[in-house]
Predict the 3D structure of the following.
Amino acid sequence: MAKTPLKQPISAPNHLKTATQKWFVSVIEEYVLEAHHIRILTLACEAWDRGQTARSAIEKFGMVYTDRYDCPKPRPEIGIERDSRIAFARLLRELGLDIAGTPDDVRPPRVGGRL
């Protein structure tokens, strides 16, 4: 990824959950990242944690609640979880950690070879 590694050791942000901090550090140790990659990685970790927090709320309170008119409504955490998953996936794709090869190989091939 980067032409020259960062000179200072990078530690995981304190606001991340412990498991996410460990993953952050493992990525830092395995890949040579530039400063902007560190920011993208941090955003991906935050999206992961936010999605997991929303998932915990859904497990605890269920997927729906009853509003003041006694109508079932989806919990806001459903959208938070969905949005966090999408953000995490996009940020990982942006980092391209699992892609090796030429710049043309930035994304996996399309299903069925469609353009």
